[in-house]
Amino acid sequence: MIKSHVLISKMSSENKKRGRPRILTDSAKKRRKSEANSLQNKSRVYLGNQLDRWNTLKEELGVKTGNEVAKVLLDSYYEVQARPRIIASTPGPAAISNRPDTPRNVSFCTPSMSQSKKRKLQEPDLSGISSTDQENGDIKESDFLSGVEDLEHTGHTPQTSCRSSRRSRTSAFKSESSSFVNPFEITIDTSGQFDIEDDSSDEDYEPSFCFTERPDAAIDIEEEEEVDETDTGDESDGPEYDQGPGVERLTIDSMDSLLSDTPFLVYKDCLLRLVQMNIPTSCQQCKSSVELMSDVVGSALYFSWVCSNGHLAKKWCSQPLLNRRLHSGDLMLSAASLLSGNNFQKISDFAKVMKLPIVNISTYHRIQRTYLVPSIDQFWINHQTSTLEDYIGKDVVVLGDGRMDSPGHCAQYCSYTFMEMESKTILCIITLDKRMTENKSTNLEKACFEKGLKFLKDAGVNVVEVVTDAHVQIGALMKKNQYANIRHSFDIWHGTKNLGKKIIKISQEKGQKNKPLLEWTKDVVNHYWHCATISNSTEEFQTMWYGILHHVVDEHEWVASYEREYVSNIRCNHGPLPPDRNKAYLEKDSDAHNALRNIVMDKRLQNNIHYYLNCRSTSDLETFQNLILAYASKRHAYTPPVYRARNRLAALDHNNHLGRSILVKSDGSQRWRRTYNKKSARWSVQPIKEKKTYCHIPNLVRMIVTMRLEDNVGMNQNVVLEADDPRRLSKNLAPVAPHQLRTLLRLRSQDLWT
């Protein structure tokens, strides 16, 4: 007995891997998770509207899991298949209706690998209702890791799905009875909860079943925003436009004709005129034969039918002509490049790859300077005027925030935005060049703020409170007498973020003595936010804020003597703490506790309390600053008028898409999507809103075309700078005037030889 025990112990020690336990890398964890998901996908079957019948059958059979129900149905199927009187490969309702232990009128569809590659559009693989367990409608973090949610996110088709050709599928649906069990209409998730760190080699492991009823096959493809860019159907499923004489279908041998050909921007009306045009075969003047000639002007294609003597018989252009011989395609392409927030150099590179003729960069800049930028400015002024009419004479709380055009301290432009707090409408956006602040980019934000606040005041808007970040120059400006009637508040998010940075920094000092304070960082920051939310005065804020010094040392009731009005017994506002909490309290008067006391009672922090009493946040304004990046990238250089116009385009985009409704599913529930924050390493959910309509763009394009049609001068004219253009102060940003080019070349050659 002892020998056998020793032998078993020896064998177990030999099987155990020696050395440090293996720690999977992030890539290995993702790979294992991907493999687990592929195994989960193989164990799903869709049942659709037969879910109630499935559950009823499970109750009638007296079984507890879906695995047992499936076993009964499969046993019944193969038993019917084994009967000699059944000649069909798929049993019908009558074939199994005599079984006492199986439901009546049930048909089956046996999938195959060749069939599973088709029918992607008609049989979507997204589940409209999550198969994860949710209590009281709350979304748990584990819900984001369920097999069905991952299937929705990746868009992979389950391998157990039944696929058939379009013709056989149509006939099958026609003969389908009301009792047909469609395996695409329900999800059977056998994965349960799976952890990528778990060892899946346990032989006793039996997965659980989760059922999810799926909506109709005509599901919206935008159910999840992040859909894999995979093919959603067979190319032959669409209308057969390629059938008929005159339609050329390329092959491998004729591929060179496609690669050497040139596409063009052609308008439909012009193309119809070409089709209907009566082309003469001979010249009416000299009766000589007519030849076809082509020419490219900008983005337009010209066809000319000319005889050998130079007589023009017919002429056709792919685009309508505007006044002064400007092609409409050139104007529209230039307008689309700017209004969509694109950079023309990228558009030009795209056209080169396509071999698509477009305008050159000099023509684009002339069109942009003469028609695009003035139209955008006028359109914004009209929109801003109508917007401010709703706030004239009213008390308004505005949010303000600045944005530099480039990272670091070498910015050229600053744009400052004022947003109305309640409606989130942008009232004003100011852009300045650092040449207007003596080439000091650090003074740009203050100058923009002052100019924007003056604009709102002159427009008749009664600004009673302005919310900004803790900008030192703006804070000093708001203390002046001219702004005495305007309350200045700080953004609570920036304030708590800076507080958290201080706690993290001090907890890493003095070796390990302050390390226990690091665990309380989140609690201290949340408590500061809570104090700003419910406090009405500085004294009330201080009394509540100082309470964190007692709470962290397990003192939940104390005598307050910080202010005369609040000398009394004070206690924490939280309820009973859970007995199983594992966060260790700090030791009173320890190094960590004293470090926290220095932060909490910091004099500068106390002096700034009144800025946070209203608990204002500029988060919506921060979101708009990200939208500006879509129109004015920080990696491209713009002239002052173009940079101003691009910022105004972002403001128009924002204001015209306020109040978008949240999309709903067929059952009336709202649609959500998952987002991951890398900094906080947490998953969260956001509502999926309606797509943007850009209803302001057609009116803006109409204004651009109208400005061109009403222009009697054209683009070839001297450039006149605006009165406040910073290029009037200095032609370039360098503090030293540039030398002539030939002088620089001569100096360069001298440097190379010396």
The CA-CA distance between the termini, in Å, is 94 Å
Instruction: Count every helix, treating DSSP H or I runs of 4 or more residues as helices.
Output: 23
Largest sheet report: 5 strands, mixed
Helical content, roughly?
25-40%
β-strand number: 14
Beta-strand residue fraction: 5-15%
Shape annotation? extended
| Spatial ordering of strands, largest sheet | 8-7-6-9-10
The whole-number mean of residue pLDDT values reads 77
Identify low-pLDDT runs. Answer: 1-14, 86-234
What is the alpha-carbon Rg in Å? 36 Å
Category by helix and strand content: alpha+beta
Kindly describe this structure.
This protein is α+β, with helices and mostly antiparallel strands and 754 residues long. Among the domains are: 26-228, no CATH class; 259-320, no CATH class; 390-491 and 617-655, Nucleotidyltransferase, domain 5 (2-Layer Sandwich), CATH 3.30.420; 493-612, no CATH class. It has 23 helices and 14 strands. The strands form 5 sheets. A 5-stranded mixed beta sheet has the order 8-7-6-9-10, sandwiched between helices. A 3-stranded antiparallel beta sheet has the order 3-4-5. A two-stranded antiparallel sheet has the order 1-2. The protein is extended and about 115 Å long.
